[in-house]
Structures are given as structure tokens and as C-alpha cells.
Predict the structure of Transmembrane protein.
Amino acid sequence: MSDSVYPTAEQPRTTTAKIVYILYLAGIIIGLTAVIGVVIAYINRTEAPAWLASHYRFQIRTFWIGMLYLLLGSILATVVVGWLLVLFWLIWLIVRCAQGMRYLDRHEPLPNPTTWWFN
């Protein structure tokens, strides 16, 4: 009998989604890892079960919405509001990744993967 509560077939799937969240967090320092993360999410979303597909959808949206926040923050960086927007993006990204990993560890779908806010 296995020591794991969840079937071993699910472990590699959740590991891939968790890697994407970690790549996003690493992207705060090394931006390229976020691009790698979104590519992984796009590749895995079609073959994933519905509950896991919600995580990949959330990750893809996190990437693109985050890019929008960063673009606007960069454009507005000449005024203080741009730096505040970049600070908001940083907090927003950390919270979204933490919430996503929390649901992922419990093998639960995200309640609202299409939200622009936190979830």
C-alpha cells in the first residue's frame, strides 16, 4: 500500500503545475523563468483533468495580466504611480502563486481561475 494519500499518477501532474508557480515566483528576479512557466502551462492545459486545468488557466492568465500590469507600470514609471503599480504587481503575483499552490496541494480546482484579482 502506498504512503501517499493521492494516487501516484496525480503526483507528476501536480508537480508540473507547482513548478509553474515556482517559475513565476523566480520570474520576479529572473524574468525568463516566467516565460518558461507560461509555455509549460500552455502545453499541459489540454491533457489535464478539469480541476488541474483550472490551475493552468489561472497560471496563463496570471502571466498575461501580470505582463499588462508591468507594461503599464513601466510606461508610468516617470511618475510615482508607475512604481506603485509595479509594487502592486509584485504583491499580486506572490499572493496569486501562494493561493494557487495552496489549492494545488489540496488537489482542488481554483474557485475562480478567470479573476483579475487574487481569487
